[in-house]
Design goal:
Uridine Diphospho-n-acetylenolpyruvylglucosamine Reductase, domain 2, Uridine Diphospho-n-acetylenolpyruvylglucosamine Reductase, domain 3, four-stranded antiparallel β-sheet, globular
Length: 344
């Protein structure tokens, strides 16, 4: 049995109080909301904060405000709340799909949107217990000097496995960050670094408090996730796409590929290729080919690397076909019926 290390627990009732505690404790403290990622990491001694600062009792972080001008979601809104809210099944359907596909119902009841956005990067060599990692001489991400995925690399290659971030990036989301110095709002795409260790640009003394989503009138979006099992597993490939279509022509589009690098990757050229065109088979195929060029999977998660790269174009195709109104029911079912051992 893996046990948690000893730690102090603080449960502030106000955001200003949480910010003061975090600032005072410095690198010895971490914030916790649902704890579905942090607590297992602590049991494996990947993260060993001396103080945990709970955000659960801070009322303002649980708000959901959806208006025509845009939406504001508190960082402690749970994934279950999003997946059960029918208001997300229109222009924000990519977020609804992403939240619905995270882990299991029990975990979604605890897991928060902010926590999933800030999810620790993952790797076959990192996400093991302490004794396993010690036996191979640890890795660069924790206590070692070598990235076992790419031994010649000067940076960690652990993968970003957040489901909701690619969906939110496709929707043009931003995040609000608060510290004792004040507040700042940044585009969600700018929250991430392509570095498995320093994967967030959030400062150590900042708390992610709110997620903003621009107006989605006229937009359609979709999210597709590849994993070995139909439930529970983290993605080894994810694709989020969104498009604003008027009179059958794409006015604006965004495509994001997740779980193939240490941050979600924006397929800007692929999205740009759709603008001014009908979302037909030819346009979709061209965009899918461009987006797939971003995927350069390594031996740090599940499945064969070359197959994961090949299937990227197919998943972009599915997402765009769904936005265009095409029938993708068979493909959705196929994801749950594959004999993965036959193709891995």
């Amino acid at each position: 049995m893996m046990r948690l290390p000893l730690f102090d627990f603080r449960a502030p009732r106000a955001l200003d109080e949480a910010v003061r505690i975090l600032d005072g404790e410095g690198a010895n403290a971490m914030v916790i909301a649902g704890g579905t990622d942090l607590l297992p990491n602590m049991k494996r001694r990947q993260q060993v904060p001396k103080t945990l600062i709970s955000l659960r009792h801070i009322e303002g972080l649980h708000n959901v405000n959806i208006e025509n001008a845009g939406s504001r979601l508190g960082s402690c809104v749970t994934l279950t709340e999003i997946s059960k809210d029918s208001r997300f099944r229109n222009g924000c359907s990519a977020l609804w799909e992403a939240a619905s596909l995270v882990a299991t119902p029990h975990i979604r009841n605890m897991a928060t949107l902010g926590g999933n956005i800030c999810l620790d990067t993952r790797c076959t060599y990192y996400d093991q217990n302490y004794e396993w990692r010690k036996a191979i001489n640890f890795c660069m991400k924790k206590d070692g000097e070598i990235c076992w995925t790419a031994t010649g690399s000067d940076r960690c290659m652990a993968v970003s496995s957040t489901d909701t971030a690619p969906a939110l990036m496709a929707l043009g989301a931003s995040v609000q960050l608060k510290s004792r110095e004040g507040e700042r709002e940044v585009a969600l795409a700018d929250l991430y670094n392509n570095d498995g260790m320093n994967y967030l640009t959030r400062r150590p003394n900042e708390i992610l408090t709110e997620i903003g989503i621009p107006a989605t009138h006229g937009w359609k979006s979709s999210y597709w996730k590849l994993r070995r099992r139909g439930s529970f597993d983290f993605p080894v490939l994810s694709v989020a796409a969104a498009a604003k279509i008027s009179k059958g022509v794409v006015e604006e589009a965004r495509i994001v590929v997740g779980s193939v690098a240490s941050r979600p990757l924006v397929a800007a050229d692929a999205a740009k290729s759709l603008v001014g065109r009908a979302l037909d088979a030819q346009a979709i195929e061209h965009a899918a080919t461009l987006a797939a060029k971003l995927a350069k999977p390594l031996n740090n998660t599940d499945f064969d690397m070359s197959w994961r790269k090949k299937v990227t174009a197919e998943f972009v195709t599915y997402a765009l076909r769904e936005i265009s109104g095409g029938d993708v029911h068979a493909e959705r079912l196929q994801l749950m019926r594959y004999d993965w051992d036959a193709i891995s």
